Amino acid sequence: MKLNSNITFREVDDEIIILNLENDQYYSLNKSGTQIFKKIVVEKGNIQEFARSVAAENNVPYTAVLQDAADLIAELKKEKIVLSDDSEV
After folding, report:
1. Beta bridge partners of 12
2. Residue 41 class from Cβ within 10 Å (0-12 exposed, 13-18 middle, 19+ buried)?
3. How far apart are CA 60 and CA 6, in angstroms?
4. What long-range pairs does 10-14 form, CB within 8 A, spacing at least 24?
5. SS3 (DSSP) at 19
6. Residues 6+ apart with CB under 8 A from 7
7. Which ranges constitute the DSSP H helices of the chain?
8. Half-sphere CA count of 52, side-chain side, radius 13 A
9. Where are the domains of the chain?
10. What is the pTM assigned to this prediction?
11. What is the pLDDT along the chain (89 residues), one digit of tens a residue?
12. Which long-range contacts (C-beta less than 8 Å, at least 24 apart) are formed by 39-46?
């Protein structure tokens, strides 16, 4: 997965603000969404490893963290913020 070339983002406090330069829409991710975005999108981390780490650190169920991360990634793909590695912009 890769960031769409029409997207720019900036971290402000504990949130990430995302701007789609093509349609001028912007999105805001809360602290949890920011963690997911940074680890999986920016750092190209593995979603399962991310979920295991967060679950262990916060004493929460792995499946819940994995589902939340998967849901956010699906929404980012739907909004074309992130693309599959083989997608063209």
Report:
1. 15
2. buried
3. 35
4. 11/38
5. strand
6. 18, 19, 20, 21, 81
7. 31-36, 47-58, 62-78
8. 5
9. 2-81
10. 0.86
11. 899 999 999 999 989 999 999 999 999 999 999 999 999 998 998 999 999 999 999 999 999 999 999 999 999 999 999 998 764 44
12. 40/1, 40/69, 40/73, 41/1, 41/3, 41/73, 41/76, 41/82, 42/3, 44/1
How many angstroms separate the CA atoms of 37 and 33, rounded?
6
Assigned token pair, 42: 């920016």
- List the structure tokens of 83: 């693309």
Give the integer Cα–Cα distance in Å for 13 and 70: 24
DSSP letter (8 states) at residue 58: H
CATH 2.60.40 fits 2-81, yes or no: no
